[in-house]
């Protein structure tokens, strides 16, 4: 087991360029949140954004999209029912 120290963190967590775009940091598609688990997809999207994923797209029940965007405006979202 390896201990976590400042040296390890400095090699893993790097400062992002001011001229970079969120698309430079990967793309993630999350599918889920069907009734009654709407909160799960919101928490997954929040974790994805907070952990540094670039472009986050969420496919979920249309009823979850307003709640998702009230908690987290960054991800793009679409209704699974419309696909």
Gist of the model:
The chain has 83 residues and is α/β, with parallel strands linked by helices.
Key phrases:
3-stranded parallel β-sheet, elongated, 83 residues, alpha/beta
Describe this structure in words.
- The protein has 83 residues and is an alpha/beta fold.
- The chain has a domain at 19-72.
- The chain has 3 helices and 3 strands, in the order αβαβαβ.
- The chain has a 3-stranded parallel beta sheet, covered by helices on one side.
- Helix 3 links the parallel strand 2 (55-60) and strand 3 (76-79).
- The longest helix has 13 residues, at 38-50.
- The chain starts with 5 loop residues before the first helix and ends with a strand.
Q: Which term fits the overall shape?
A: elongated
- Classify the helix fraction into a percent range: 25-40%
- Average pLDDT, all residues: 93
What Rg, in angstroms, do the CA atoms define? 16 Å
Distance separating the two termini: 45 Å
Query: What class would the helix/strand composition place it in?
Result: alpha/beta
Number of strands: 3
Q: Characterize the main sheet.
A: 3 strands, parallel
Determine the number of helices (DSSP H or I, runs of at least 4 residues).
3
Strand order of the largest sheet: 1-2-3
Strand content: 15-25%
Unreliable stretches: none
Order of helices and strands: HEHEHE
Give the SSE layout.
Elements: H1 6-12, E1 27-31, H2 38-50, E2 55-60, H3 65-71, E3 76-79
Parallel strand pairs: 1-2, 2-3
